[in-house]
Amino acid sequence: MRPQGTVAKWKLEEVDKLAELMKEYPVIGLIDMTSFPSKQLLKMRKLLKGKALIKMSKKALIQRALEKIGKKELVSHLQGEPALLLTKENPFAISKILIENKANAPARANSIMPKDILIPEGETSFSPGPIVGELQKAGIKAAIERGKVVIKEDSLIAKAGERVDAKKAEIINKLGIEPIELKLRFVAAWEKGMVFGEAALSISAAQVLEWLKQASAGSLNLTFKVGYPTKYNVKIFVQKAYTNTKSVALKANFVCEATAKELLAKAGAQAKALSEKIPTAPIEQAQT
Fold first, then answer.
1. What is the residue range of 72's domain?
2. Angle in degrees, CA 165, 170, 173, rounded to 5
């Protein structure tokens, strides 16, 4: 028997193995595998082959290993049923793979709905029978019309965050809805002394590009408003200066290459207007 208060040898060895394994990778990630099916895990391992390694172990042992290699900042991110995700790739690229390869699954008793489950109004594929009563008990307004079961109006069967019972789960599945998202939650990643949380890792490249566009437009507007010229806005400043200078020159009737055409047109228009105001002498008066 192991003396009371001592740690099992295999646990100490497992902590050492985990610690040595993590030292081989510049990026140490944590994933939450709660309720993630083994079939999907096998598929994910294949997708990540050559890019990342998923290493499963007990939560307490992962914590000890993290503490042993000085990565205590990751300990607070140990959630649910954690596992290590080790990679030499960009953690955001790995996160993209996880997000893009999520799958949907049927609801089960006690499943928590990730979003509102709305049953749309309209005809269903069900034939008349007990299903009508089952739908009605679930809070769905159903009826029989022209030999088909029809949903009379949009019905909210479950709200986001709600835990459904077995009967509701069965109805949701019969309606062909698979509300459960099967994905590995990339909870955190350590790289070069920085820890990226789940929210940061979930940001897409498209979102980053949009933020960069907004930041670029905002900084351009700011530098223009405060009159600070840069290589990105100098063309706008030159155009503005040209427009203002030309406007002043036109008001002062100053003739130059930029204003000559408009000033001549203005003079012509004024001459025509003036000539129209001068009365024409009668012909007989002109002959005398």
1. 9-102+183-203
2. 125
